[in-house]
Amino acid sequence: MQYAKMLDGQSPIFSQFGQSIYASDVVQMCIDVIATECSKLLPKHIRTDPNGMQANVKSSINRLFKFSPNELMTTKDFIEKVIWLLYMNYNCFIYPTYEIKQDSKGNPYKEYTGFYPLNPTEVVFLQDESSKLFVKMSFPNSSNFTLPYSDIIHLRKKFSVNDIMGGGIDGQPDNAALLKVLKINDTLLQGVEKAVKTSLSIRGILKVNTLLDDESQKKEREKFEAKIASGQTGILPMDLKGDYVDIKPDPKIIDKDTLEFLDNKILRNYGVSVPIISGKFTDEEYQAFYEKVLEPLIISFGQAFSKTLFTPRELDVGNEIVFYQKDMMYLSTSAKLNLLKTAGEQGLLTDNQKLALLGYPPIEGGEKRTMSLNYIDVKLANAYQMGRKENTKGGDGDE
Q1: How far is the C-alpha of 86 from the C-alpha of 165, rounded, in Å?
Q2: What would the pLDDT profile of 341-386 be if each residue is shown by its tens digit?
Q3: Is the whole model's pTM more than 0.70, yes or no?
Q4: Number of domains in the chain
Q5: How many whole angstroms separate alpha carbon 178 and alpha carbon 175?
Q6: Which residues form the domain of 159?
């Protein structure tokens, strides 16, 4: 093999080191809230027919994603791990293990046995004589493996200037701008800490009006401290040779607006607001968070998993991986029910579409549409009313 040829002329060798910003508590809170929300996702293998109707598929993928993608993690743990690796390195590699089996017609297919998030320290992209792309991964225990790139689920964040990797030109997180804000924020926090310590340390000076050697000064100080400790009324008796000079500390604390400004700059970098972190958000605030941060992740997850796990033929017949967002839809329950009532009563939605609105996967037979009998075609409304008028009898008002 030889090194893969990259269009930008860069060497296809990348180190995975992007942890320098994660000492910040604000950064950790931002990533944690994103990972926690995404951990509510329900990955499903579905198949969509030419009419757009979706159905669950009985497959090894659904069996693994139901509870445990591998022997070390639950589905929730797996998704959280993937999000942390993605935000730490701007790249996340997931290796699906599988066995080759044959169906009843003798055609080979992959039966998946596990999904494993990987955290290599170095990745090298190679290609063979037929230009097939491979990735060589090195790990902290000095082991390395070379695998076909088509077998790897590769998630990327800020995929821009590099041909293969997310992040900056070198395939690593480009956190230079964020680091400047974090350094300023840390300096200010250290200043607050020192100001508090200063205000609680030296409170006054004991002036002794005689010349004393070091030992005598020590004894005089101990005598003064004893008087402070024994003072019940708050009044200290002093002799003629001693004066106490009070020091009024006036530490300069950073104003609240400055600290909030820096915190908000960090929060905006991750698309997370204070209400989202505190959990005191409205429907509109969660909708903004969902559309800006969560929805792009959900879309990229589904496309990356589908691209790797299925052959072009399987994709053509409607197989795909969808990460359903049950329990994380931004609309409140009452808002969803109002939407279902309006659209559902008019027969605009199938049963599976109603389930999808609530964040649930499709069910068998869920392609049928139901509607309320309280609605009528506008073209028939006049005829209906005219018919009722003609059938109305006079006199006692009975029809």
Answers
A1: 11
A2: 888 787 788 888 888 777 788 888 888 887 776 666 666 667 766 6
A3: no
A4: 3
A5: 5
A6: 2-173+271-324
